[in-house]
Structures are given as structure tokens and as C-alpha cells.
Amino acid sequence: MVSLLLVGNAQAAKGQLLQDYVNNLVTFKADFIQTQPDESTFTENRSQGQMELSRPGRLIWQYQQPSEQKIVVDSENLWVYDLDLDQVSVRPIKDIKNEIPLSWLLYNEPIEQKYDIIESSSRNGMNWFNLTPKSPTFFQSIDVGMKNGEMVEVWMYQGIDNITKVKFKNIESNKVIPLQRFQFEVPAGIDLIGQPK
């Protein structure tokens, strides 16, 4: 019994390293490269762009290549602007909060409230944490890679062979980002699908 308690306390302490990082994070801005397997062609889709985050509850995730798309979380709504389709869709956050892969980072909630945290072995010069949702979501688990106290990679598993990998670079943490950046206005002449809260 004592050994089991010690193991449990050790895992909690390891998970606390990630929780402490999140607790101390106010804003996060970075360029990203995202890769995802294409099951139909057995190749890898690659996209890149920028992201900005302001805790709690605000996020911009903007793809620039190979096609432009802007995703905005304004604390109440999730907006998706597809520039190729000239279309904007919106959904209230309360309906999809648990489906947002970065919800563990975005909100002021203890990570262990919704995820089991396991610190994995170090690889590629990073310390890794695995987050497994306690309730079913569209992804099975998330790996978070930390280096020098900073989040540098996030891997999202939808299946053993379906892993979306995001690598961050040019990271700026806890710099001022005006909240106006996270306000989304539907451009004139663009179709809107859904109703904001």
C-alpha cells in the first residue's frame, strides 16, 4: 500500500510540472508547423501558420499554407473563417469546449480535472507529458513536449496511425496581446453559418 501511494504521489508531482507551466502562462504566441497523415494517399499533409493565445478562453489559430483558414475563440464562440470558401461558421464554446484540443491550456481549470497525466520518458531533447481525456472526445490522447520550461510540441492522437503533430517556433510567452485581437467580425459579403452566443 505504501509503495502504491508513493507511486501515485510521484505521478502527481510530475503532472504538477505541466500544471505549473499552465498556471504561469498568460499569453503564448508562436509560428507553427502542423503535419497529419493522409490516409487516402499514404503521405503527410503539412500546413503552417501562426497562433496567439490569451488565457483564459481566447485563441487565434491561423493557417497560411497550403490554404488560408482562421480559427478564433473569443471566450464565448468558436469562429472558423475559410477564405477559399468565402464562408464563416460559428458555434458557442459551451457546446464544444471539450472538443477543443488545447482546452487543457486555454482555461483556468486543473488539468487533472479532465485528463489523466503521465510523464513519459524524454525524447528528442524534450520532456513529454501524456494527457488522456477522462471523458470520450474525438481524440484519444495528447502528448505535450516541453523544453527549457516551454511548450514546443503538441501531438494529438485520433488513432495509433492518425497523429496530428504541431511544432512551435519563434515562441513569445507572457507578452502583451491586446484583447481586441480576439474579436472576430464577419467580413462583408461572407456567408455565416450558425449563430454566435
TrEMBL record:
Q: Name one Pfam family in it.
A: LolA
UniProt main location, coarse: periplasm
What is one cellular component GO term in this UniProt entry? periplasmic space
Superkingdom, natural source? Bacteria
Q: Where in the cell is it found?
A: Periplasm
Which keywords belong to this entry?
Chaperone, Lipoprotein, Periplasm, Protein transport, Signal, Transport
Looking up InterPro entries in the UniProt record yields: LolA/LolB/LppX, OM_lipoprot_carrier_LolA-like, OM_lipoprot_carrier_LolA_Pbac
The record's Gene Ontology biological-process terms are: lipoprotein localization to outer membrane; lipoprotein transport
Briefly, what is this protein's role?
Participates in the translocation of lipoproteins from the inner membrane to the outer membrane. Only forms a complex with a lipoprotein if the residue after the N-terminal Cys is not an aspartate (The Asp acts as a targeting signal to indicate that the lipoprotein should stay in the inner membrane).
Kindly give the HAMAP family that the UniProt entry links to this protein.
LolA (MF_00240)
Output the PANTHER family linked to this UniProt entry: OUTER-MEMBRANE LIPOPROTEIN CARRIER PROTEIN
Q: How does it assemble?
A: Monomer.
Similarity section:
Belongs to the LolA family.
What NCBIfam families is this protein classified in?
A: lolA
Q: What is this protein called?
A: Outer-membrane lipoprotein carrier protein
Upper classification of the organism: Bacteria, Pseudomonadati, Pseudomonadota, Gammaproteobacteria, Thiotrichales
